[in-house]
Each structure stands twice: as C-alpha cells, then as structure tokens.
Design a protein that fits this description.
- This protein folds into 2 domains: about 140 residues, 60s Ribosomal Protein L30, Chain: A; about 190 residues, Beta-carbonic Anhydrase, Chain A (3-Layer(aba) Sandwich).
- About 40% of the residues lie in helices and about 20% in strands.
- It has 11 helices and 11 strands.
- The chain has a 6-stranded mixed sheet with strand order 2-1-3-4-5-6, sandwiched between helices. It has a 5-stranded mixed sheet with strand order 8-7-9-10-11, sandwiched between helices.
- Bound molecules: zinc ion.
Length: about 375
C-alpha cells in the first residue's frame, strides 16, 4: 500500500493521519472558497429564481450519498439532513424544530417545499447497501414511508405546499428511484437517458398530486441525474470506478454543514438529531474500528470533527461554539467507553461553520 495505480484521491486514504487531516481541512477550505465566490453565488441566485421550490433531503450518513453531485445541482440548493441509516423521527425535539423552522422560513418567503425522504441500496451487492438497516432494503423503504406519514401529519395531507417524496438512491450507478403512493416507481437507472424529454410526462403520470410548478422544479434534478448516471457508467466502463470499496471511512463528523465532503467513503456524518445521540456515534465508531481491523484504512488514527453552523454573529455564534464543544466532548466520551482501543487513536477538531460563507472556523483547544 498504496498500489501504484491508485489516483491521488485514493492515495490520501493510505497517508498518515496528520496528512489526512490537513487534506480534509484543505478540502473544506477550497469548498468554502468556491461556494462564496461570485460564480457559484450567481449560479445559486439564478437557479433559485428559476426554480423557487425549496428542496430538503433526509438521508443516510453514508458519504456515498451526495445528491447535489448525483443530480448536478449547484451546491447549497438542496438542504441536507443526515443521520445514521436515514433514520429520523419527527417527534425528536431538535429535529422537529430545525426541520419545521426551515419549512416555515421557506413558506413565509412564498416558496413550496419538496422533502426528499431517501433510502439507499446497491443493485450489485446487498452488502453495499445501508449498514444502518443491516443491508435490508425493504426495512429502509418502510422507514421512509413512515417518515412520509409523519411529514403529512405535520404539514397536511394535500401536499400542495409541502410535498414528501420517497426516493431510493442506488449507489452503484448513483441513480434515483422515485416512489409514488400507488406503488409505481420511476427508476432513472432504467430510463433511456437520450429520451429525457419524455421525463416530464412520466413524472406527471407518477405524481399527479404534486403541484405542477414543483414538478417543474424537480425535473432538472432528474435530468441532472440521467446525465450523471451516464458519466458514472462511462467511468465504470473505463475501469475508473471501484465499487468493491465498501467502507474506508476514517472521519466521524458530528453536527451539521459537511457538504464539503464530496468524496465517498470518507466520513460518517452523524446529525445532532436523535435524543439517543450515543447510538449513531457508537455505530460510526464501530465502522471505523472494523475499517482499521480489516486493513481498509491505516490504523494510526481517525478524526472526530464536531461542527455547528451559525448564521448570525454574536450570541448565535457563541452558542454554536458551546454546542460544538459539547458534542465533541460527548462523542469522545461515548467512543472512549465503547471502543477504548479506538479512542487512543482519536484526533479531535472542533469547529463552527459560518453558514452563509461555508467557512469552517476551527476552535482553539480549551486550556484546562
Ligand atoms: Zn446508510
């Protein structure tokens, strides 16, 4: 290790931990810089003016699921909510508050909200599916439908303003599958990509209850996904796509605002949502421990990165600092108790994220 044919992006997974951490922080810095530059800012403004439907996505913490990339949507348009296995319960106090607040902010601005409730699976090998659901596709699908029922309870059943849509994500080809309540599906992996002009009619047939302007705003995601699937297939055909790498994560991210992590199988993202926060942290630690035990990553260390976003300076930023420190300490304790061997190799960084600028600001290590 590392074999010569590995690309630079692959080689980093075998580098010493200090080098890997620097690489990750550099990735965050570059992402922030691109995000707040005039080009990306204008692209987002134009996109939102043309497609006013706000889109939120509930998804698994698995790093392979990057819907912006898979739908060729500018960064910052899709609002992600991530947790282990895409497991959510809208009765969780913090999640319910954040999601409701987000929806209300959008609705007050006159926008409809499309909520993508996603689960993921692999066509080629069930073991590449969702570890959070023990690779059981049916169970993760059932869970998505249960969340949909909760969203309907919260935001009403006619879905004219807030529309919950159950979506599968097939990770081998990074293809979306849309589900209707009748059991019908639209599987973009099976769609003849060159006939994307028929998509509009197919979408209308699949989701006749979705408001037409919202369908018009969902369409670019589907067209983007078709183009992306074609690229993924081309890469696979050229031997540039390695599916066998199931897990090689060496980072546990705790909190929100990790959309700079465009690299699959790098990080496990734990949202701050579940009242039993220790459970997803233990699951993530378990995955990292087995990655080390089985030689998929170097065993010299892993990173625990706690980060909390803030929108306003002053009190809100100060509170984000406290939250980030609390979550980092909490996770470190959980890992030390459950995986003491792994805890010895823990490297910690704690940060707040200036949300508008996507600027990650590392907090100094507190003096004891
Ligand atoms: Zn998963």
């Amino acid at each position: 290790m590392p074999p010569n044919h590995l690309s630079a992006a692959d080689a980093i997974h075998h580098a010493p931990i200090a080098e890997r951490i620097n690489w990750l922080l550099e990735l965050a810095r570059r992402h922030g810089e691109a995000f707040r530059g005039p080009d990306a800012w204008l692209a987002r403004q134009r996109y939102q003016a043309r497609h006013p439907t706000a889109i939120a996505a509930l998804k698994c913490m698995d790093g392979r699921i990057n819907l912006s990339v898979a739908t060729q949507t500018p960064a910052g348009i899709l609002m992600p909510f991530r947790n282990l296995g895409g497991m959510f319960n809208l009765g969780w106090p913090h999640l319910g508050e954040i999601l409701t607040q987000h929806v209300m902010d959008m609705v007050r601005a006159g926008r409809r909200v499309l909520v993508l409730i996603t689960y993921h699976w692999s066509r080629g090998d069930p073991q590449r599916g969702c570890a959070g659901f023990h690779y059981n596709r049916a169970a993760s699908q059932d869970h998505a439908w249960a969340i949909r029922a909760q969203l309907s309870h919260l935001f009403g059943h006619d879905h004219a303003t807030v529309y919950p849509l159950v979506c599968g994500f097939e990770t081998d080809q990074e293809a979306l599958v849309l589900h209707s309540t009748t059991g019908a599906t639209l599987d973009l992996a099976e769609h003849p990509g060159h006939q994307s002009e028929t998509l509009e009619a197919e979408l209308a047939a699949l989701l006749p209850d979705m408001p037409a302007p919202m369908r018009a705003d969902l369409l670019p995601l589907l067209r983007g996904n078709l183009a992306h699937i074609a690229e993924v297939r081309a890469r696979a055909a050229a031997g540039q796509r390695e599916l066998a790498i199931e897990h090689r994560e060496w980072v546990i991210c705790l909190g929100r605002g990790f959309d700079f992590l465009h690299t699959p199988n790098l990080a496990l993202i734990v949202g701050p949502y579940s009242p039993d926060l220790a459970h997803p942290i233990r699951t993530a630690a378990h995955i990292i421990q087995s990655n080390m035990d089985q030689g998929r990553i170097p065993d010299d260390g892993f990173l625990l990165l706690a980060s909390v976003p803030y929108e306003q300076l002053g009190v809100e930023r100060a509170r984000a600092e406290l939250k980030a420190r609390f979550m980092g300490d909490f996770a470190a304790d959980v890992i030390a108790q459950a995986y003491p061997r792994l805890a010895e190799r823990m490297h910690r960084r704690t940060a707040v994220l200036d949300w508008q600028a996507r600027r990650l600001e590392l907090l100094p290590t507190p003096v004891a």
